Amino acid sequence: MTMGSKAGVAVEAVRLTKRFGPRTAVEGLSFTARRGDVVGLLGANGAGKTTTIRLLTAVLAPTSGQFAVDGYPSTHPMEIRRRVGVLPESAGYPGHQTGRDYLCYHARLFGLARPDAVRAATRLLTEVGLADRALSRIRTYSRGMRQRLGIARALVNDPAVVFLDEPTLGLDPAGQRQVLALVRDIALRRGTTVILSTHTLPEVEEVCTSVLILDRGRLVLSGTVGDLTDAVVPRSGLLRVPVDLVGRARDALAGIAGLGVAADEQRDVLRISLTGEPDGRWGRETSLNDALHAVLGAGVPVLSFAVDGSRLSDAFLAMTREGGR
Ligand SMILES: Nc1ncnc2c1ncn2[C@@H]1O[C@H](COP(=O)(O)OP(=O)(O)O)[C@@H](O)[C@H]1O
Ligand SMILES: [Mg+2]
Asked: What is the pTM of this model?
């Protein structure tokens, strides 16, 4: 199969797998990211986020499967490295250098002549909000400033795809906000595809257009953030019916497998909940909608029906056994 030639596709992976000896770090990962997408790579520690990034940036060779970045297949690692930018998991910085010298040096590595490299460094420092610290030594930078400098470095070759490995890890809330705002900017203003790994949900919901949820190397859920939020099956809810028809509603609900019904303090309210485990095929299991249909089908008017909150976090917690860690 030929990969990577499809218009608008920035990253495509097909059954990408990486084993380290007996341990499988990434197993059969397939997905597509489009230009300008901000893809959240979400998973607990050890889920395979860093390995995925190292595969897609041609640092590691896959054990099996294939991928393409900006139209170049995995068989052309040099071309891929020229077209990606990376903020690694734990980047070291030369504390004695100024931010501008550091970026200048990296711009020169990508072949820019000195005056062009200085111009590029100055522009990038402005882009990441470090213009006023351009001539300070990096050792005087806060952790958040270093992360933003690292993101500037990842942009030095004007990459088609930028990979940021847990860019907000260890930052205070203000530092996190600055990094996330920068991520949004990079995608919007440059049209660059961003792949961002994280083990926390709020930032996915805040900046990502789509999400890949990894659990022990396997993709357990993927889609746009909006789709996933909608697709999450609510697990419980409160159903209010006319008080004299509560018995009839209960009878109608009794016939549904996988549904629990309990009385509420209010006599006209039934608390209904799904008793089965989510099976990972969202929408195919018994849903609260079945309950609603059964009640209406029995001729009981539904006065109100409030489902308990369904957010991406519910999906994450339900789908990853390590969730919440
Ligand atoms: N170089 C390596 N050698 C052996 N095992 C590794 C190596 N890199 C990662 N792993 C293992 O692969 C799994 C996924 O790791 P990683 O990709 O770092 O996860 P994450 O970034 O989501 O925390 C873990 O079980 C980890 O121990
Ligand atoms: Mg990692």
From this structure: 0.77
